[in-house]
Amino acid sequence: MGRKTEMIQTTPCVALLLLVGVAFAARSASAITDGLLPNGNFEEAPDKSQMNGTRVTGRYAIPQWEISGFVEYIGSGQKQGDMLLPVPEGAYAVRLGNEASIQQRLTLTRGMHYSITFSAARTCAQSELLNITITPESGEIPIQTVYTSSGWDSYSWAFKAKHSVVLFIVHNPGVSDDEACGPLIDSFAIKTLNPPQRTKGNMLKNGGFEEGPYIFPNTSWGVLVPPMDEDDYSPLSPWTILSTTKSVKYIDAAHYAVPGGARAVELVSGMETAMLQEVSTVPGRSYRLEFSVGDAGDGCSGSLTVQAYASRGSVKVTYQSQGTGGYKRGLLEFTATEKRTRVVFVSMAYTTKSDGTLCGPVIDDASLVSVRSHRRFLL
Description:
It is built from two helices and 29 strands. The protein is 9% helix and 43% strand. The strands form seven sheets. Strands 1, 5, 10, 12, 13 and 15 form a six-stranded mixed sheet that branches. Strands 2, 6, 9, 11, 14 and 16 form a six-stranded antiparallel sheet that branches. The protein is mainly beta. Strand 27 and strand 28 form a beta hairpin. Mean pLDDT is 88; it is low at 1-28. It folds into two domains: 35-193, Galactose-binding domain-like (Jelly Rolls), CATH 2.60.120.260; 240-378, Galactose-binding domain-like (Jelly Rolls).
């Protein structure tokens, strides 16, 4: 009898411990939906007791995040010497000093593909970069080239979830002797990516670039897709961006002139960056590649030239831009020489707007068909 009473008395304690454990687990790994990560824009501030000036002293002081190293909490309009530190969204951002990092635990669907979008601004070294990790995957994003007049750019990085709970880490590997020196970061968002499928009448997947990374609705500078190893999963899958440090810009119809649909790509890095997709072909068979070349309506004017390559064929398409939008169609017919053929687009020159920022031709609505299949379709 006494033993049974003891069990009855201890059961509420066990239940309470289980509830506490569940609550802790809910805080430590946030269930993810498309859009901002929990406190992804850092508007939930650290308690002043865990701050020393702008430096965050508490490891868990920034709600939803865990920090390591020299991390600063920066308010809009704050100065670094004579330089004003702007914030792209809201009132606050975070600055990562040398070897500093910030991380958050995320709950994902194992096996699904995702893209992270975030904003960053260089404040010190010319060659600043950021390491992005979604355990166990990691990548390096160069932020040395600035593509906007504000100094802020939005970047994307894609991955396949290897686990249902992962650690998302942003790390400044440090290229300066100054402990506090490092990039400003803000506005972290996530988007579930649906691997594009081939559509009828087009051998290219995602030829209209409708599937891509999250674009912040309140920013007007698009999202950069940085260079990647060919084995990496692209935010513009299955398109791959080949370069050393330069990017292409993913743009939307809400802020730019887009030839078709709601999304397109602006080639903002001249001949230093190529965009390609590899497709299955039959050696000896003829194919027709068609695509749109135009301008984004962002003041990028002049001769905007794109060169397209496929197998041994190539074509240059020039659009005379007034910077107000518009496009023309390009055509390349070629004969496949291999079972796998790379379709490649590259801008043939650096172009800048009146404010000195980089811009370039827009690519959209790319399609590839077998000439034999195309003729049968026309009949």
